[in-house]
Amino acid sequence: MRSSSDPLAYTVRRWPAAPPGIAAWPAVRFLTQTSERRGLTPFIVYCVIAGVAGLIWLTVGQSRGRRATVLVSRPVSTHPPM
Q1: How many C-beta neighbours within 10 Å does residue 49 have?
Q2: Domain range list for the chain
């Protein structure tokens, strides 16, 4: 294991960030060009539709007497069962 002051160790730790950065470049370019052409209207419409759908989902879940399901990861025990 290399020390944290080693420049090579720093470079190796940066490599996992390269693929997401490369993938983000065309996505940001596309979104920038789209917002310049059409404005933010499509995004606003999407937010309103997603917000209303979320409220309906939460309301229907509450009216049926159950809570909305929230996925939470539970800690995994490393001890074998007794």
Answers
A1: 10
A2: 7-60
Is-above-0.70 flag for pTM?
no
How many other C-beta atoms are found inside a 10 Å radius of the C-beta of residue 53?
10
Q: What is the DSSP string of 13-68?
A: HHGGGHHHHHHHHHHHHHHHHHHHHHTTHHHHHHHHHHHHHHHHHHHHHHHTTSPP
Contact between 61 and 67 (Cβ < 8 Å): yes
φ, ψ at 4 (rounded to 5°) = -70, -15
Confidence of residue 62 (pLDDT cuts 50, 70, 90): low
